[in-house]
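Weekly puzzle thread! Below is a chain. First person to post its structure in C-alpha cell form gets bragging rights.
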Amino acid sequence: MKVADAVPEFADAFGFSEFNRMQREALPALLDSDANVVASAPTGSGKTALAELAICKTLQDGGTALFIAPLRALTNEKEADWERFESLGYSVYVVTGERDLNPRRAERADILVMTPEKTDSATRKHDSPRYSFITDIDCCVIDEVHLLDSDGRGGVLEVTVSRLRRLCDPRIIALSATMPNIGDVAAWLDAPPDAVFEFDEDYRPVDLHSGVQTYTHGQNAFVDKYIRLSKAIDLAEPHITDGGQALVFVSSRQDTVRAAQKARDAIAERDIPMGARGDYDVHTAAKELDNETLRKSIPDGVAFHHAGLSKGDRDQVEAWFKDGTVQLLFSTSTLAWGVNLPARCVVIRDTKHHDPLEGEVDISPLDILQMLGRAGRPGYDDVGYGWVVCDRGDADKYRTLLTDGTEIESRLAADLDAHLNAEIAMGTIADLEDVMSWLETTFYYQRARSKPEEYGFDGLRDRVRSSLERLVDRGFVETDDDLGIDATALGRLTSKYYLDLDTAYAFRRLADRDRLTAADILETVAASAAFDSVSARQAESDAIGNVLRGVDTDLEDGHRKVRAILEASMADSIPGDLRSDAWIIRQNALRLLAALGEFLDRFSGPRAANLACRVESRVENGVAASAVALTAIDGVGAGRAETLANAGMTSPADVLAAGHGELTNAGFSAGVARRVVDAAGELPRIEVDWGALPDEIATGDNELVEATIENRGGAARAGIRVTVNGVEMSETTAYLADRTTTPIAAFGSPAADELEYTIEVTFPDLPLLPVRASRTIRVE
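Winning reply:
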C-alpha cells in the first residue's frame, strides 16, 4: 500500500512512499479506529511509522499528539525528523527543562515531544497555567514501552501514563521492540484484541544470528577491557574483510575513544584491509572535524560516536558509517535507541557500566536486546550477526536472554511510597477508596493479577495500606476523622521536587536546627539517599582526602566523595581524578540544594533559605563566599564574577558604585559593562531609617517606635529580623517593593548598660548577603 493512498494529506510527512508488510497489517487499527493500540516489532522493522500514522490520524481529527521518547537526546532527534510535519503546517514542540519551557508554544503545538520524567513533571503541575497544556492531549504515543521494566525510570513511566489517562484519557499507542508479555501491557491499557500486534522475527528485515562470547574476569579492570576488545575485533574482522561493517558498543564516552585508538593499532598489526587513506575527499573532510582524535581515526576507517561530540562531528560520522567510509564504529548504548545505524556485525563489548550515582551496574536486558537489534543492514545484508562479550559466569544469563527475551515487569513497588505521596499531593487521591482505585490503574496491579504468586497479589491491598500508614507516620500525609487523606506541606514539597522520602525527611529535620551553617547544608545534601549508590574508587581517595583536609565530616565512601566534589565546586578547583563523575553529581546536588532552599524557607525561615541559596550559587558558579552576591546579577556567572572580584567588586552595590568605566577597565566590553551595571541596579538596595529611636533610655522606661526599611532597587521577597543584644525580638516576611516599617520596642532593662538593636534583611530567593544595620541605646 502506498503512503499517498492511506494518508494522502500526510504523504510528505513520511520518508518513504510505500508501507511494508508489518505497517500494512497495523494500519487499519491505527487509522480506522480510536482504540488504544499495543504493538511490538523487531528493531529495524519500521515501527516508527506506526507512531507517525497514529499522529496523522490525531492531526486529521484536529487533536494534539504527545510522543514520549525514552531519552532526552531522542526528543531533539524527533524534532529534527518531524520538520516534515512542520512543512505541512503543523507545529512540533519539544518540552525539555523548566527554565526553557514556553507555555504558549506548548499550548499551541500539534505534536509535543517529551521524556517520561518531563511528562511526569507536567502532569503533577497540570493545574498550573504553565502546564495546563498537558490536559489537552488527544493521543499519547509511548515509544519503547518496555522502559516500564527499567529501574527507577520504569515506575515514573507507569504512574505518568496512569495519571495522564485519569486527567484526559487520551488514546494510547504503545510501541516496543521486545515484549514477550504483550498481553499484560494490552490489558493495562485496555487495548482490544484486534489492536494488539506481536510481530515476530519473521518481520525483521534481516535475519539475526546472535551469540555469546566469553572470557575469564581477572583482577585488573583495564586488562579485562582490552581482552574483551580483542575478542570484539576477532568477531568483527571477518565481516569487515568481507566488505561489511561492525558496530561495537562500549560502556562510556571515554571508552569509545580509547577503544578506537587501540583498535587502530590492532588493525595495523593484523593488516586488516580497511580505511580510506588514499581518498583525498575523506582526508580533506576529516580535517574539518572538531575532535582531533577523530580526525586521526577516520582515514583508518575507524571512528567513535557519543553525545559529547559536536553535532557536526556526530552527523559526519553517521554519514560516513552509512556510506561505508567508516567500517568499525565504537559507540555508547545511546546510539542503539537513537539514530538508525545498522551494521552487519554488532558486538557488545561491555555488559556493565559505571554510573556516577549507582556505581558499577549491569546494562539492562532491554538495552542489550536493543543494541543487538542493530545487526543487519536492510538492503545490504541477508543476515546480521550480534555478539555479547561477557564473563564466563554470566554466559548462561545472556544465552537465556537471547533465546527467550525478557518479560516486562513493573518497577512501581520499589518506590511505591514516593509515587503514592505524589498522587496524594496532587489531590487525585482523597481517601482510602481512591488509593485502591489508583492502584488498579497501574501496570503493577495488572502484572500482579497475571503473576499472583510472584507479586503477592492477595496481599497487594495490605501493602498499599502499609505504604499509606508509613506516609502518615513520617508526616508526609495526614488523615481526618472521616478517613480523608491530604498531603502535608512536607508531602507537597517532596512531590514538587521529586525527592526520595528519606532525603525529604532529612531536609525537614535540618530545618529544625537553631544555628545553621553552610557546612550543615553541604553535609546534609551529600548524605542524601540520592547518592547512596555513588562509589568512591581507590584511585580517587587521595583527591578526596586533599579536598576535605580540614573539613569536619562524618560521611564515608560515596557520600564523602560527593561532599568533596561540592567543596571543590565552590572553590572552582575540582581535581582531575574526580572530574569524570563531577558534572552529574553536581547537577543532582544543585537540584537538591534548590529543594532544600524551599524546605528551609517553609519550615525555618528566610535566613536559612538565603544561606541555602548562597551555597547553591557557590556550588554552581565556583565563587568565594565573599563574592557570591555578584552571581545575583543577571548575566554574571563564574567567569564574570571572578573578573569583578579581582577588580575589587564583591557585591552588586560595588558594581553600581564603580559604573561602566571601571568595568570596562576590568576587561568588560562597553556593551557588557553597561548591561551588567544596569542589571545590578535592578537588585534590591536596602537602607534603614531608625526613626525616633532614642540614643538613651532610663531604666524601667519603655518606648515604641517604628524603623523604616527602604528598598531603592528592584522588588524582592525579604525576611526582616530584629534582635536586641543578639536575642530575636521579631521576624517577618514581606514583598519589599519600596518601603516597609517594623516596630522597635526600646526598653530600659536593669540587666544591661547598653542595648544593641540590629535589623537584618535577607532575601530567600537571591544569593545576596544579608544586609544588617545596628543602633546602640544607652540605659541610664
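Puzzle host: Confirmed. Bonus trivia for everyone else. The chain has a mean pLDDT of 91.
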